[in-house]
């Protein structure tokens, strides 16, 4: 029986039906109740009760993402739309934030921006390719652990395997799932336990670890894979496609069926079949070995039917059956695509049922979904970069600008993700150009929305545009007063 996640009925190799949740009804009080006990210690009801559940769910998700072309298609589309050509990062002065009396505007922002840019460049965190891999990993596993290490205020970041975060032996409930929290508040994290090997472990404080989880409530300690609700459908879609394609390939190889006339001896038929390619192998099953007989049909094969037997064609040979299999597969994939609000063509690869207008309309829910994911990415990266800046501050790289709280309050980290285009590319570009000409869109933001790295383009030879501060708009009723102040008289006034 293949691995599965709880809550699904599986079909074993011999056709026996097994309900993985049957144990929940074996004794009273073991079903999902909706009470506080279902969330106690950071659990997630019957889905994530312990680390074994996490391991099974994560393993099933990784397996389907490795073997299912549709799972890969979903992850690739999600990453490409969310990240596209890359994300831009900028640290600047907060226009409305409080500042200490000795705060030196721009100097602090430049120093902080330099630290962030150095971190992004050296670790590769800001590159489009790495950011796509990080996104795929998070959605596949349901969570991501990023550990920060530092030497002399210079930070490194490493993505940790979720299995390394585990509860230490003989520790209380507060250490469940390897995350120590306050006894009565699982959202107040004290430290993470990283078990590198049976003999080596670290307890990492929250200021050196970023933990981003998905598909669970805040009071659940560990995340849930995007593929948990759709893994079974993806597996069946792959099997349906494989079996349909395999059966069709065999049918296509058979050029003719030869039924021998009455009176033909069995030996004569066998002599005709002697040239066919037969193979025999022993297949292992949970109930022991069994013999499997195989016959290979080469291109344009002629099949001989022995005396006393009647040829019955494959169901796939019946008109409409093959098409029905494809329709069923598409229906399954549409259900899978709902998990990410994707249009059907984004996961099936078949856009034949859509015209261009309906594709744009169908893509609108997915656009909103991607924009929400981009907002999550910005929040997560902002959390990471604030920790990087705090480490640099503690090492003296931002000293002289006030306390850390004052310095942080005076700065802001701006993160721009590429815009998810709803219309055609030329129309979007022309609209941004108009906004730029009217002074309401910066060149840097324009480049990010076009999926370009502004600094990289400047390094490649593009002209750097120096943004000019906008000219204050003078109300009409004060225009004459402004002119009088500047020129010492009102327009048209003649002085003696």
Explain this structure to me?
The structure is a single chain. The chain is α+β, with helices and mostly antiparallel strands and 496 residues long. It has helices at 51-67, 69-83, 107-123, 128-141, 231-253, 266-273, 321-337, 345-348, 356-394, 404-410, 425-437, 443-449, 454-459, 479-487, and strands spanning 10-11, 17-18, 88-93, 143-151, 154-160, 179-182, 185-197, 200-204, 209-213, 254-259, 277-285, 288-296, 301-305, 411-416. It has a three-stranded antiparallel sheet with strand order 5-4-9. It has a three-stranded antiparallel sheet with strand order 6-7-8, with no helix packed on it. A hairpin with a 2-residue loop joins strand 4 and strand 5 (154-160). Helix 2 packs across helix 9 and helix 3 packs across helix 9. The N and C termini lie far apart (105 Å). The model is unreliable at 1-16 (pLDDT under 50).
Give me the oligomer status. single chain
Coarse shape = globular
Largest sheet: 3 strands, antiparallel
Termini separation comes to 105 Å
Overall pLDDT score: 78
Compact description:
The protein has 496 residues and is α+β, with helices and mostly antiparallel strands. It contains 14 helices and 14 strands.
What descriptors fit this protein?
three-stranded antiparallel sheet, disordered N terminus, 496 residues, 14 helices, alpha+beta
Helices, strands, pairings?
Blueprint: E1 10-11, E2 17-18, H1 51-67, H2 69-83, E3 88-93, H3 107-123, H4 128-141, E4 143-151, E5 154-160, E6 179-182, E7 185-197, E8 200-204, E9 209-213, H5 231-253, E10 254-259, H6 266-273, E11 277-285, E12 288-296, E13 301-305, H7 321-337, H8 345-348, H9 356-394, H10 404-410, E14 411-416, H11 425-437, H12 443-449, H13 454-459, H14 479-487
Parallel strand pairs: 10-13
Antiparallel strand pairs: 1-2, 3-14, 4-5, 4-9, 6-7, 7-8, 11-12
């Amino acid at each position: 029986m293949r691995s599965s996640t709880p809550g699904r009925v599986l079909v074993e190799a011999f056709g026996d039906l097994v309900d993985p949740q049957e144990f929940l009804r074996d004794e009273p009080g073991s079903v999902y109740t909706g009470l506080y006990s279902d969330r106690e210690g950071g659990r997630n009801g019957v889905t994530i009760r312990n680390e074994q559940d996490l391991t099974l769910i994560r393993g099933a998700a990784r397996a389907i993402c490795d073997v299912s072309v549709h799972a890969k298609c979903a992850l690739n589309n999600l990453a490409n739309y969310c990240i596209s050509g890359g994300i831009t990062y900028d640290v600047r002065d907060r226009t409305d934030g409080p500042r200490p009396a000795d705060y030196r505007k721009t100097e602090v922002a430049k120093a902080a921006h330099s630290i962030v840019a150095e971190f992004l460049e050296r670790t590769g965190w800001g590159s489009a390719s790495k950011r796509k891999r990080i996104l795929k990993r998070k959605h596949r596993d349901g969570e991501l652990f990023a550990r920060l290490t530092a030497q002399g205020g210079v930070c490194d970041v490493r993505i940790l395997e979720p299995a390394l975060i585990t509860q230490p032996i003989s520790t209380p409930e507060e250490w469940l799932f390897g995350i120590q929290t306050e006894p009565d508040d699982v959202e107040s994290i004290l430290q993470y336990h990283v078990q590198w090997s049976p003999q080596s472990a670290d307890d990492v404080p929250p200021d050196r670890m970023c933990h981003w989880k998905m598909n669970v409530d805040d009071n659940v300690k560990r995340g849930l894979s995007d593929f948990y609700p759709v893994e079974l459908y993806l597996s069946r879609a792959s099997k349906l496609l494989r079996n349909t394609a395999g059966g069709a390939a065999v049918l296509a190889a058979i050029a003719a069926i030869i039924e021998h006339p009455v009176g033909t001896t069995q030996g004569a038929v066998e002599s005709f079949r002697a040239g066919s390619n037969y193979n025999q192998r022993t297949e292992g099953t949970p109930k022991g070995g069994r013999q499997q007989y195989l016959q290979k049909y080469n291109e344009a094969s002629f099949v001989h039917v022995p005396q006393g037997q009647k040829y019955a064609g494959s169901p796939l040979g019946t008109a409409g059956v093959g098409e029905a299999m494809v329709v069923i597969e598409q229906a399954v994939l549409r259900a899978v695509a709902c998990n990410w609000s994707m249009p059907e063509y984004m996961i099936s690869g078949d856009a034949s049922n859509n015209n261009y207008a309906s594709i744009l309309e169908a893509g609108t829910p997915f656009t909103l979904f991607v924009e929400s994911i981009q907002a999550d990415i910005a929040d997560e990266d902002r959390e990471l970069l604030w920790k990087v800046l705090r480490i640099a501050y503690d090492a003296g790289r931002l000293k002289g600008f006030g306390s850390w709280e004052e310095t942080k309050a005076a700065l802001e980290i701006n993160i721009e993700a590429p815009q998810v285009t709803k219309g055609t590319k030329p129309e979007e570009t022309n609209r941004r150009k108009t906004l730029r000409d009217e002074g309401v869109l910066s060149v840097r933001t324009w480049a990010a929305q076009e999926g370009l790295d502004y600094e990289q383009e400047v390094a490649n030879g593009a002209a750097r545009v120096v943004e000019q501060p906008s000219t204050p708009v003078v109300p009409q009723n004060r225009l004459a007063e402004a002119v009088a102040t500047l020129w010492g008289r009102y327009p048209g006034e003649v002085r003696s």
